[in-house]
Design brief:
This protein is an alpha/beta fold and 240 residues long. It has a single domain, classed as Acetylglutamate kinase-like (Carbamate kinase). It contains eight helices and eleven strands. The strands form two sheets. It has a nine-stranded mixed β-sheet with strand order 4-3-5-2-1-6-10-11-9, sandwiched between helices. It has a two-stranded antiparallel sheet with strand order 7-8. α1 links the parallel β1 and β2. α5 packs parallel to α7 and α6 packs antiparallel against α7. The radius of gyration is 17 Å and the shape is globular. The two termini are 31 Å apart.
């Protein structure tokens, strides 16, 4: 049997909160988390160093709350705490599969997570632990996409993987516009010029300035994380 050879040594995987709720309208779907954990365990078994960044939109969205009258800073802090809940759910699923995992939070809460310290995060990766980075950047007005781009740069990831509900980048939302066209490859600048909703502009700009490629792919198709890691043409690529 031929041994699979990963295309990347160290990756950062951005998981949206919506990815964890499956077909539910809210919260965490246990079977979905279990499936994601199974795939991460398989990738980890190939010797790939993995950092995860979790979103919190399945529980709370700070921007949406601000539009409803909640103070933006308070709303963003509430959203950051939601990402920690998701991170703990992922950690539980991974450790049940004997994958050594550390949750690291940008907001200090030592009873449930380590504080995020870049050198410590890199050391965990070098020791073969999966790290789950929660609470965004710890600052309001920054999304978890921006946090993913920042952490990918800090831990010197080879690639930033953005897991979504669709199979790549489209000219419009394919769930709403059947005429939307799909892009296989784009530059960071083209994404910004076209105003494509891949990640927020801060995240795209940060990746562009630091030469970080992004692969956007469908998380709901089983095995896609592995395919991306092995270098197969899955989803859409920005830069690279």
């Amino acid at each position: 049997m031929t041994t699979a050879i990963p295309a990347y040594r160290r990756v950062l995987l951005k998981l949206s909160g919506e990815a964890l709720m499956g077909d539910k309208g809210f919260g965490i779907d246990a079977p979905t988390v279990d499936r994601i954990a199974d795939e991460i365990r398989e990738i980890h078994g190939l010797g790939v160093q993995m950092a995860l960044v979790t979103g919190g939109g399945n529980i709370f969205r700070g921007l949406a709350a601000a539009q409803s009258g909640t103070d933006r800073v308070a709303g963003d802090h509430m959203g950051m705490l939601a990402t920690v809940i998701n991170a703990l759910a992922l950690q539980d699923a991974l450790e049940k599969r004997d994958v050594s995992t550390r949750v690291m939070s940008a907001i200090e809460m030592r009873s449930v997570a380590e504080p995020y310290i870049r050198r410590r995060a890199v050391r965990h990766l070098e020791k073969g632990r999966v790290i789950i980075v929660a609470a965004g950047t710890g600052n309001p007005y920054f999304t978890t996409d921006s946090a993913a781009a920042l952490r990918a740069m800090e831990v010197k990831a080879d690639i930033l993987l953005k897991a979504t509900r669709v199979d790549g980048i489209y000219s419009a939302d394919p769930e709403k516009d059947p005429k939307a066209t799909r892009y296989d490859r784009l530059t960071h600048r083209k994404v910004l010029e076209l105003g494509l909703k891949v990640m927020d502009t801060t995240a795209i700009s940060l990746c562009m300035d630091n030469g970080m490629a992004i692969v956007v792919f469908n998380l709901n198709r089983p095995g896609n994380i592995r395919r991306v890691i092995l270098g197969e043409p899955v989803g859409s690529t920005v830069g690279g």
